[in-house]
Model the fold of this input.
Amino acid sequence: MPRVLVVEDDPSIRTSLIEILTEHGHSVRSAGDGFGALREVTQGGLDAVVLDLGLPDLDGGDALRMIRGISGVPVVVATARDDEREIIKLLNAGADDYLVKPFSGGQLVARLSAVLRRSAPPAPAAGPLPQADPAGPLTVGELAIDPRARTAHLAGRELSLTRREFDLLAFLARHAGTVVSRRQLLADVWREAYIEDQTIDVHVSALRRKLGERAAAPRYLRTVRGVGIKLVAPH
Done:
């Protein structure tokens, strides 16, 4: 049974979220403010956090950064802010996914289930372990990616990437020079059938910025309109 912390200052909304998640088989704890959320996270035993940004004592973004300072628990941010820059800031601060208010109970459950699937440890392989390591280093131009260490360097400088940004970059690097469709990204990086188009766009935009490029002047990330995106070595 997944253990979820709901952080929401409005008592009626908090009660509604608890009821929805409980009905779908989650064990739910709750907090009405940022410091209460930090106390709950410190106690441990959580599989995910649903974090509202409109808290009475702390800015939600600050609460997210504090949670990230003490725990790697997946965090789904609930926000009324749909500005791309704000969403990028939240993802860079450590959010694993986000929901824009108002959202349905079904959407919350689906997003939370997807985050839990992605954060679950891989199932042990049946039979003997393979002798070769399939997660070898990847190099594209001056970009060096180590999937095992989950690090990425550009011209010797380590890139500060969120978990999802790293997964996206590593997947594109494994298929360097090949156009990868949104459908492939959904299946192999997000591992779910449906997410908002903006979610992929936000992560690609964040990667561009960290690689020091813009969509209007791409170097590594090339968009093929109507087809997908590919990672290439700059000429």
Remarks:
- The two ends are 51 Å apart (CA to CA).
- The chain has two domains: 3-118, 138-231.
- Residues 223 and 229 are 4 Å apart (CA to CA).
- The mean pLDDT is 84.
